[in-house]
Amino acid sequence: MTQTLHIFRKDVRRFRYELCAVGALTGAFAWSHAAADMPGLPEFSRAVMLAYWTTACLAIAWWFLVSQLIHEESLAGNRQFWITRPYSWRHLLAAKFLFVVVFMNLPLLAAQIAILAAAGYQPLAGLPGLLWMQLAVTMVLIAPAIALATVTRNLAQFVMSILCAVLAAYVAAAALLGGGSGIDISSAAWLNRGAAVLIACAGAVLIVRWQYSRRLTDASSIAGLCTLLLAGAFYIGIPMQAQYAWRSSILRSQETSAVSVSMAPSAEIDHSNQQKPLDIVLLLPITIARLPGSEAARPEIISVSFENPAGLHWSSGWRPASRWYPISTVDGPKMRYQQILALPRDLYRRIGDQTVTLHGSMYLSLERPAVVSLLPASATGIPGGGFCEVTAADNEKMNEIFCSAPFRRPYNSSSGGGVDVDRGAAGIERHNRLQLLSLWESPWPDFALSPVFTERFRYESESGIAFVREDPRACIRRDFAAHVHMPAAP
Amino acid sequence: MSDPIRITELTKKFRRTSVLKGITLAVPKDAVFALIGPNGAGKTTTIKILMNIFRPNAGRAEILGIDSRGLAGSDFTRIGYVSENQDMPDWMTVDYFLRYLRPFYPGWDDELAAQLVRQFKLPGDRKLKHLSRGMRMKAALAASLAYRPEVVVLDEPFTGLDPLARDEFISGLLERSQNTTVFISSHDLADIETFASHVAYLENGRIQFSEELSSLSDRFREIEITFDASPPLSADWPASWLQPESSAAVIRFTESRYDSERTIAEIRRRFPGVRDISATPMSLRSIFVVVAKSAETVAA
């Protein structure tokens, strides 16, 4: 303990100027978020932008400080003075850990408490959430930075490694997305990201332990690379099929056994879709029949394969189903929609104007959206905590809703569309649909540095806001086959 | 007591390059043991293995009875290490550097540290990065002697030091290293000769010799044989006669196993017409050069 404190004091003395800068940045971060998390500010107001910038700067400053802190007793290389001095690696590591807790975690905690209090929340009531956020910040931001610093000799190597990792991630993402397989952005994506974070954190802990106890930099670097690849693979996605297979094993229902998926025997070419000039964009008419009650089906992912009479075979692999575009109609217990499918133009020339055998598989969710709360008629509180305030925007025809919630997004900001609410004698009211967190979303606080999440949404003042919760009752897989006539290639 | 440093069949490879090829040596207690050899011979690698900075591929290095691979933490309270290419905490002042190191060593002697600072004329308030190379080495030495280590290991400590700095460094080392075993690698043979008690010559990853300096000096002689006429050159030249040269009426070589009676008798047996024989003691530097050149000749 004495040695730990001795090294800690030395580091405080060494980095006193850097600590002042990071302290000032933490203060600016707290102040800017407290100012930005208020209703009535435009989305790109100076205060909101300042909050973004201070968050980014604080994260960068932490990485810089972590790199300097670890490199002060560098583990990579063979010229460091301290490796032939009576340092205990456990005390050295404890001193570095103490430094991170005292000068990063605790100031952040204080800033988060101030941000919560300024937004009108009780900080003590949110203590578990705050502690979770500290853990998340340590796992996502600090532990990987420490691990990287242990296998690099100086700041230049540290920065270059980050740039290389970012570049490699960009190239990998571009290659994968260009190849047609999508990154999962569904509400369950947190599973992938959580797994990636856990792998990255476990790898970081292993590397740090290994480096401090044995200083095996080459082996640690290889372990780091493997960790990065594995975490990246998990981040990009647990394969969609596996994820939905898992969901369907959890959400079963006897009522869904009759549900069937079929395809009409003719496809269309979408001439309006010019996004991929080298591809032919097909519209496959798909019918989901025998839906139970008044439930809606939501196609999640689909895989389609063709075989023409000459034996030519092509498979799309699993990909997100096109859920809403171009049209989907619910006709009693049936739902029809057109699945978009892009095929390489060269391939299509060989199957165009032919009847091909098509095999498909689809995972779909069955759900009945539930309107949970209406604004502005109902109270300003929103389900799950937080509040909303409606104000008239500068244009009289528009209102702006500002929502704030501790630890979680108030609603899924990518959701949209409308929902009809039956007012009986008063008729049907059309409301803007804001989707609340669903069953598949993470039960833990979202990852961020600030514990207060805000959203701003503009809408026509005649309509209201409906908070809708869509919890699937069942997730099922259906296979289907058809002989489909392909239109001639244009 | 056993030897404070023992190296047995030590082998080290960096990828495909063999740097150490099974070296064996022992450093007796309280010796000032010099490891000499040309650039790239493996001196620094040997020392870094000894200090557990590198790991050997085979063999074993022990310091104070501890396998170097297990050397860590508190073991270094008994060992001092100074290297020409060691990174120092440049932001620290000399005084703070010594104050910072003090709690790590139970045997730290403040009085001795102060004496060393005075003796080396170290400016206590100056940052290490602002010191000259000689001053930095002296600061490193002061920080390695102030806790009275049992073994001091020095890797090329004289490189880049001016003569005055060298003298101060050596005198500081010798005055404060009573009851301390010193293991030093160096090119500065003239300086080594003045204070080393033992010497080992490392060449191309192999120990060529390892012995007390006095016995080394005794067994190496520069021999000059003068003849009345041109001397006949023998075909079966003894292996211990190194770097033979001949001119009009003179043959010169270095005898590496000199014994006054036996060597003279051997010369007279081989060269009956000899007029005069002189045997001159050699400096360590001359021995080093002859051995190095002989090794090159054999390799060629």
Describe this structure in words.
- The complex is a heterodimer of chains A (490) and B (300).
- Chain A is α+β, with helices and mostly antiparallel strands and 490 residues long.
- Chain A folds into three domains: 2-187, no CATH class; 260-366 and 474-485, Immunoglobulin-like (Sandwich); 370-470.
- Chain A has helices at 2-14, 16-36, 46-72, 89-118, 127-150, 155-178, 189-214, 217-236, 240-250, 345-351; strands spanning 260-263, 268-269, 279-289, 296-307, 313-315, 319-320, 328-331, 334-344, 355-367, 370-375, 387-392, 398-406, 418-422, 428-435, 452-460, 464-469, 474-485.
- In chain A, the strands form four sheets. In chain A, strands 1, 2, 3, 7 and 8 form a five-stranded antiparallel β-sheet that branches.
- In chain A, helix 1 crosses helix 4 (89-118) and helix 4 crosses helix 5.
- Chain A starts with a helix and ends in a 5-residue tail after the last strand.
- Chain B is elongated and about 70 Å long.
- Chain B is an alpha/beta fold.
- The longest helix of chain B has 16 residues, at 284-299.
- The interface between A and B is medium-sized, with 19 and 25 residues.
Number of strands of chain B: 14
Shape of chain A: globular
- Biggest sheet details of chain B: 6 strands, mixed
Spatial shape of chain B: elongated
Sketch the topology of chain B as an H/E string, one letter per element. Answer: EEEHEEEHHHEHEHEEHEEEHEH
Structural class of chain B: alpha/beta
Over the alpha carbons, how many angstroms does the gyration radius of chain A reach? 27 Å
What number is the mean pLDDT of chain A? 84
